[in-house]
Design brief:
Shape: globular
Distance between the termini: 14 Å
Helix content: 40-55%
Strand content: 5-15%
Largest sheet: 7 strands, mixed
Strand order of the largest sheet: 3-2-1-4-5-7-6
Number of helices: 11
Radius of gyration: 19 Å
């Protein structure tokens, strides 16, 4: 990312936005989300207000349900794989997830969310350098803020926000219109393919490829029933993979 680049980021919890700010505060960032509450959450996080509670979102709440199944003392002394397996099977059901996040959260995969998160947590626990992440999540401090030390004396005038439906390639039309068809250097699309039909995801990626002279796309997949790497390569992106315990695939696609 270079100074004065245009960067588009799906809002989500705001971590990508803060990563970019820490890397280069001179970039122009457009934060897009279909949920106005998520956009407000990011604004509040950037305010770095110690009186704000950032552990109230749906994502945080479902992990709080999981966390409440264990005691800190137990976790600090021993890892109960059987109890973790039972708790995940009980909490991360498609029925529970669809009630909390909506049907779109589970309708685009046949895979098991409890199996996925069992693999995530056991991997974190077994890898020594990630044991702190494991303990933070289960002991209640893994979602505390600040996640990053933000630059001092930054009023974040280079950040704008857009509430938009993230369902098809009209999203890219709206973004390009806002930028008056300027080239956009980076699209950080989070894991949008887990929430929309595969065909819509392909159309979004194709439009990004076709409407920018050179660009980079960062995109992740949690459990979708498709190969993200194959989709990106077939469109024409040069693809590199990034290792990530949480996601099945994390892809960086480059159009020169």
């Amino acid at each position: 990312v270079n100074m004065m680049d245009n960067i588009v980021v799906i809002g989500s919890g705001g971590e990508s936005v803060m990563n970019i700010i820490n890397s280069n505060k001179h970039t122009d960032i457009l934060v897009v989300d279909m949920n106005p509450n998520q956009l407000q959450l990011i604004k509040d996080k950037l305010d770095n207000n110690p009186n704000k509670n950032f552990n109230t979102g749906k994502f945080e709440e479902i992990f709080k349900l999981l966390r409440n199944r264990f005691s800190k003392i137990d976790l600090c002394n021993r890892f109960y794989e059987d109890e973790l397996r039972y708790a995940l099977d009980d909490i991360f059901t498609n029925d529970n997830l669809s009630k909390i996040f909506g049907e779109d959260a589970v309708k685009y995969t046949e895979k098991s969310f409890s199996d996925h998160f069992y693999k995530v947590f056991t991997t974190l626990y077994l890898q020594e350098y990630d044991q702190k992440n494991f303990m933070d999540i289960f002991c209640g401090c893994g979602f505390s803020f600040p996640f990053y030390k933000l630059p001092e004396n930054n009023n974040f005038n280079n950040i704008s926000y857009m509430e938009a439906k993230i369902i098809d390639d009209s999203l890219i039309d709206d973004i390009k219109k806002k930028y008056k068809n300027q080239n956009i250097s980076v699209f950080d699309l989070s894991n949008i393919g887990d929430w929309i039909p595969k065909e819509n995801l392909i159309n979004i990626l194709k439009k990004i490829y076709d409407t920018n002279r050179h660009t980079n796309v960062i995109i992740r997949k949690l459990l979708g029933d498709y190969c993200l790497k194959t989709i990106m390569e077939e469109i024409g992106f040069l693809v590199s993979l990034d290792e990530d315990v949480f996601y099945e695939e994390t892809i960086i696609g480059i159009k020169k």
